[in-house]
Amino acid sequence: MNRRKFFKNGSLFALGASVLNPLNAGATPKDFDTYKKSKKAKNIIILVSDGMSTGTLNMADLYLSRKMGTGSNWLQLYRDNKATRGLMDMASLNSIVTDSAAASSSWGGGFRINNGGLNTSPTGEKHLPIWQKFKKAGKMAGCVTTVPITHATPAGFCVNSKTRKDQAGIAEKYLGLNFDIMMGGGNEYFSPDKREDKVDMYQKFANKGYEVVKTREQMLAANTKKPILGVFSDGGLPYTIDRNNDKELAKNVPTLAEMTQKAIDRMKNHPEGFVLQVEAGKVDWAAHGNDIAGLIYDQTAHDEAVKVAIDFADSNDDTLVIITTDHGNSNPGTISGSNANKNFDSIQNYKHSNEWILNGISRESTIQQIKERIEYANNFEVTDKEAIALLKSYAIIKTEDGLYNPRNLPFKLMAEIQKQHNSVSWISQHHSSDYVEIAMYGPGSDLLKPFIKNTDLHYLMLEAAEVENKF
Ligand SMILES: [Zn+2]
């Protein structure tokens, strides 16, 4: 089926410029790049840095430029003029500020829904998730993430659920849908020791022919002839910076780039092609915690996965790579001051996330212990007054349960203290309504216009792959 016929068949994304723009009709022959852009995408790899504000993208590039001499792989696509790019309006049905479930559902189901749901309208109508559409079209499909594999962003491409919170139920839904690779965290939703119903989901996946892997070594050695379920931690995977500075974690937990490579290796020889979602989920969690080391190092881990995808697309020119985020979060930025350069560069010497710092402090800690822990992790000294203020916040009994901060650790105060030393500031600890950056590389990238709605991406992916929206 050619693209022209596809338009007739009712794509909602029917304004392909090369077809409808009379200025292009019969014009000069397309050069090779244009040809590559407009051919059919057999494979799609979509990489989502969850909760990535523009400042996060910028700071990761600045961080890499100043440390390594070259910026991020994502922005290198722009520097080399290799990608198309646009802004995307991510509003959900009930709010200009989306959550990850409604955001992923807008791409996954092609409809805006209320925050908190997965491909389910307020009246209960179910929208078939896009990875199921691609499976029906004969492709392989999978997801890899640094948060539970049952979390909102992968789930929004894969299942219908009234609520994102039913992660144990989402694990069961995955089992019935025969996805080809699913890897991330989330042991608590698969292990019989952790699940309320005591069901051994690992055994169930193994019974269906999955290779089940739980460590980095097992993952790297996994047989790519079989579908793979990989679960490497109870909840989310550790932050990249904490993993990199802990031998045990580095040995047991794969990087996002390694998972991406494995997923590609598993699916690349499939005659009908494949679709893969890659999520840097903890960029969002770090933003909720105003945790700069968690944020920048996980964004660079996402960027390493971008390189894996681009390298594959460079040698397989029937592969469309989409790089984006689902919403802003806490909108960090580097702020001006006489020491801005030096302060920002000091992040290069950080050894651990704020989560690591604060989880190691308790009511029983001494002022000296707090000061030593922060100096070890961040390479600067806090004052006695600041250490006392941190300690005091452990004494306050908190009643509210936070989704991303169940222990109510003093993340905000820690970021305020750090700001004097690293010049990074945050507007809040929550999602923001920002239009988000989206970039495309490879066949179908010509379909991206400078400003799109989140739901447009659903139809764009189907159109790029020339999969009819008939299911
Ligand atoms: Zn999100």
Describe the structure.
The chain has two domains: 35-332 and 431-464, Alkaline Phosphatase, subunit A; 351-425. α11 links the parallel β5 and β6 (228-231). The strands form three sheets. It has a ten-stranded mixed β-sheet with strand order 5-6-4-3-7-1-8-13-2-14, sandwiched between helices. α6 (100-109) packs parallel to α22 (454-464). With 471 residues, it is α/β, with parallel strands linked by helices. The chain contains 22 helices and 14 strands. The protein is globular. The chain is 42% helix and 14% strand. It has helices spanning 3-8, 17-20, 32-38, 54-68, 73-79, 100-109, 130-136, 152-158, 167-177, 201-207, 216-221, 240-244, 247-252, 256-267, 282-288, 292-315, 340-345, 354-359, 367-378, 384-395, 411-422, 454-464, and strands at 43-49, 84-89, 140-148, 181-185, 211-213, 228-231, 274-280, 319-324, 328-329, 333-334, 424-425, 431-432, 436-441, 451-453. Residues 50-51, 100, 103, 284, 326-327 line the site of zinc ion (ZN).
